[in-house]
Amino acid sequence: MIGGGTGLPVVLHGLRKKNADITAVVTVADDGGSSGVIRDYINVVPPGDIRNVLVALSDIPQIYKDIFQYRFDTKDQFFSGHAIGNLIIAALSEMNGDDIFSAVQKLSQMMRIDGKVYPAASVPLALNAEFSDGTCLSGEAEITAAEKNIKKVWVTSNDGSKPEARPEVIKAIMEADQIVLGPGSLFTSILPNLMIENVGRVVCETQAEVVYICNIMTQKGETEKFTDADHVRVLNNHLGDNFVDTVLVNTEEVPQDYMDYQKYNEILDQVKYDFAGLREQNCRVISDNFLKLRDHGVFHNGKKVVEELIRLTGRPNSWVVDRYN
């Protein structure tokens, strides 16, 4: 899977239960929260999304996962807001000469990961955006906070080098039976991976089926008023090719007044269904009730999504999961 954010680990956890052969390619353009602070201080690849994916695929006892995920209380000042796992990933990266790829592979062994976890790039990447009014901004958090219509995004590296994925990432994509994008923030979790030139190129070239799990809700500062077809159109336009083969779309209505918009303040409205728009882009459309309601929030039903992905591949023990924030 390729992506980042909170949606990716949910699907990965479900896939692990089905004994799928998983490779997760995880975004390294996050600059918010604990990941952003650590990134600014020691110039390491932001660890938050990697941490969540490692936990989703780990076979260690739950108590160890809870420790790895523990976030220090705001009263702790020095460690305030930092997850222990983020600090461990940063430390291992430094111990390995700032080689985040090797650090994640060693940590994968320690955590008994069922599958492979690959950072999309080995250096921190900055996400850049041009808005419909012609202005530009750099930084994931700043882009989202601007609350403007995004025209396009691209990534740059802090050290001036050309953003590039390691050969292991490219090999995994090319050898996959199925490539899965999402669920996750379109512009800040999924596209940052695809904007790495060699990643975007091989995703278009691969013979594997490319499946996009469309978001259920629109997101403030990113996808306001988007239909499912708009999501796919943005992906295709950024890579200059109708590369998305299949789209999983939720058609179940979110109950009125269920969402807690103060708690989930980045969420707006339910994504509208546009079957004709999807078909125009040569997509196979799979629509179903993929909705899960929890804690007054709206999520994908990981179990149903995983069942559909496995049904699509026809070979439940061989594939790659690619893209989440």
UniProtKB/TrEMBL annotation:
Protein name, entry field: Putative gluconeogenesis factor
Primary subcellular site in the record, as a coarse category: cytoplasm
Similarity-based family: Belongs to the gluconeogenesis factor family.
Known role: Required for morphogenesis under gluconeogenic growth conditions.
The UniProt record lists the keyword NADP: no
Keywords of the record: Cytoplasm
Organism taxonomic ancestry: Bacteria, Bacillati, Bacillota, Bacilli, Lactobacillales
HAMAP family: Gluconeogen_factor
Compartmental location: Cytoplasm
